[in-house]
Input
Amino acid sequence: MTTALPSHTTPAVRALLAGPLLDELSHGLDGPYHLLLPERFDANATAFRNVFDETGVDGRVYYAKKANKAAVYAERAAVAGLGVDVASHGELREALAAGVRGEDLVVTGPAKADGLLRVAVLQGALIAVDALDELDRLIPLADELGRTARVLLRRLPPEQPHSRFGLNDGELEAALRRCAVEGPVDVEGFSFHLSGYDVRQRTDLAAELVTLCTRARALGLRADRISVGGGFAVDYVAAEDWRRFEESRRPEHFHAEKSFGGFYPYHSPVAGADTLRTILAATPTGQVATLAELLRAAGVALLVEPGRALLDQAGFTVFRVQGVKERDGYAILTVDGSSLSLSEQWFDSEFLPDPVLVPATARPVADAGPYPACVGAATCLESDMLTWRKIPFPVRPAVGDLLVYLNTAGYQMDSNESPFHDLPLPPKVVVELSGSRFRWRLDRHPR
Output
């Protein structure tokens, strides 16, 4: 039997799992829903800011809005004075509507449309320029508007030369020389997009960007900040549980012996704000000073754009069991939703932390488990599985029980949402602690 992979939780999450609110919301909303915990978002943002305070590094936190479409997180970012990272006209518009100032936005993404560039320039947003043709369009646009475009030049990572993001050495040199003689562009610094969670790669590339700032200043450019983007891992499960899972994993532990292209590293020994702390304390290859010391000495600010890490424990997803089919040695649960609301399954992967079963009625002692079961969706697609893995539930699941997938706010809730079969999209419910009780409201986002 597959090993259990219980998710880390918080006191607020445990109180909600033990209380009546989840069942009441499921009944009132008549379907699956996403529950949002903005106070946890606030705490995560504070943890990142504390690292900058501890190290004496001039730093700025930008929330990567693509990680969740809910309005409440952008609203909290605005109140806290965080920046927001947007990559589309829609995300920019939503961030402004949430109260985020234009000057607190950074616009990323490749080959930005002219309409997006126009609004970004008018709002005074920082623009990550990804290609020379984008710069070719941006300069005359800023000139036409009579504004100065605030720019970060995005560096192609040398260790990921096949990435579709960023400027190579020759392109970067051409961009610098052009910006040095063209009027309506202010090169504030450099950025990169780096796949994966390798701390050493981020440290080394950040140090290279500091050197690029010195080079740009010699050309008369401002160049006083760099962005290392996101890539701050989240620690979902305990180290020992993850080790047992990895060592014992077998094809027969999954429904239909399903195989996958790979999994997110659900245990990370260094995660969230601690990753930033580790990056700043590390000495880049070929240097004698730490990255924090290099930044302070050069007078360069560090921008970070976490998404998943700011949403760690800031929300979860609730389904109701509406069918239980027994198979040889395990069950197939069917819930009132689809895997389009748990996006990992649509990337040849699986969201692995165990969902929590909240029984609708008390079970007799004799009904104690473990009872292995996978989880399917209420659609007619063979592949529409929320969980292929045979989860060892502690009691026998039954129709009417709730199934709660914990810690889903980061990317899981809406990256691939679809009203397939005319099933409604799960609404987002904002829950906050007021005194000794939880209060709830619907998120204002129309989705």
User: Anything to note?
Assistant: Residues 38-233+268-307 form a domain with the TIM Barrel fold (CATH 3.20.20.10). The mean pLDDT is 95. Residues 144 and 184 are 9 Å apart (CA to CA). Residues 199-218 form the longest helix (20 residues).
